[in-house]
Amino acid sequence: MKLSIVIPVYNSSRYLDDCLNSLLAQNMNAAEYELICVNDGSTDDSLKILNEYSNLHTNIKVISQENKGHSAARNTGLRAATGKYVWFVDSDDFIEENSISTIINCMDEQEIDFLTIGLCNVSNESHFIPTNKQNSIVFEKQPHNISCSGNRIFLREILSENNISWSTDVHSLDDVLFLFYVQLHSKKSFYTPSVNYFYRESPNSISRTKSSESTIKHINGLRNLINYYHGELAIQKEKKGNDSVIKNIDARVNLAVKSMLLDAIFVYDFKERKMLLEDLKSKNQYPYKLIRYDLKPKISVKRTIMDWSMLLFPIEFYYQVYGLILRKFVKLK
After folding, report:
1. Burial classification of residue 222, based on how many CB atoms lie within 10 Å of its CB (0-12 exposed, 13-18 middle, 19 or more buried)
2. Which pLDDT belongs to residue 240?
3. What percent of the chain has pLDDT over 70?
4. pLDDT tens for residues 211-236?
5. Phi, psi at residue 107, to the nearest 5°?
6. Start and end of every Glycosyltransferase 2-like domain (predicted)?
């Protein structure tokens, strides 16, 4: 078995045909790759559709469980995976036809343990349409704005040997943490835009909606993310790890703390923010170092000004005054 494709499924009946058809439209023997579909307590016709496909295709396996969330479903699929490589594909996304064989042959030949392919955002109205495109691999420098996990293929051995799985306590940041650990242990990674992963983001997705409830969940997720980073930072320092790795983790801690402090402005009052700062101080996570990244111009003037305004968050007085002013202008639902 060369490749295991893990597909967490929750109420995805509208898009499942696109996803599965794209994964089956491949010039690769069905015995060489498997589709592990984890039905995470769907209440629509998703399970019915999955069973119909599995009855027609021997390389489709269906696992059903009570609803435990996206990350838990991925972990269930990962435990069942037997392929040399593993790919986590979301059930509302799709990939290019005849691309899997090209990807796997390239990873084998180049001994790649972590490959990132191109990412293409599509609307909800988009569908998988075969184009008879011939794929070839061309490597390029990876852009910084790719944060999706669906366009990544991993050597399964890296995950098993380093006990890497999907965290269920970091809210919508599970991709960030999972990729962090993979990058930490990867020996050879590449990026190729030659093959595309088509990513469908709903207007109502967690990453696009902002409410008091979702913001509090995001803060709690960031708290746990910071603790994971801080724990790994201590490990790397104790074993006198690579300086660049230590600096990278330290920067991740600082950026996560900054993000949490910004979110806290919208849902915590002055006293609650004071308590948050005291908690961070007790863990040596605040005040953090000034983040030079905040000085760099961003993709928009608005984002640049926002980052500049948060540059002095490590100064407690400035942060609290900033929070009092910002809360007067921005209200969450």
Report:
1. buried
2. 87
3. 95
4. 889 999 999 999 999 999 999 999 99
5. -65, -35
6. 4-142
Q: At what angle do helices 316-329 and 243-267 cross, to 10 degrees?
A: 50
Domain with CATH 3.90.550.10 in the chain: 3-200
Beta-carbon-side half-sphere exposure of residue 315 (alpha carbons within 13 Å): 8
Over residues 231-256, the mean pLDDT reads 93
Question: Using CB atoms within 10 A of its CB, is residue 160 exposed (0-12), middle (13-18) or buried (19+)?
Answer: middle
- Alpha-carbon span 18 to 55, nearest angstrom: 18
Q: In what helix (H) or strand (E) does residue 104 lie, and over which residues does it extend?
A: helix 100-110
Strand 189-200 vs strand 114-122: parallel, antiparallel, or unpaired?
Answer: parallel
Token code pair at residue 284: 């040596």
| b (16+ CB within 10 A) / e for 112-131 | bbbbbbbbeebeeeeebeee
The CATH T-level fold of domain 3-200 is Spore Coat Polysaccharide Biosynthesis Protein SpsA; Chain A (3.90.550)
Calculated CA dihedral for residues 205, 4, 198, 119, nearest 10 degrees: 90
Task: Give the integer Cα–Cα distance in Å for 130 and 21.
Answer: 9
Summarize pLDDT for 253-290 with one digit per residue, the tens: 999 999 999 999 999 999 999 999 999 999 999 999 88
Q: Is the pTM of this model over 0.90?
A: yes
- Residue type at 36 in one-letter notation: I
**Residue type (1 letter), 311:** L
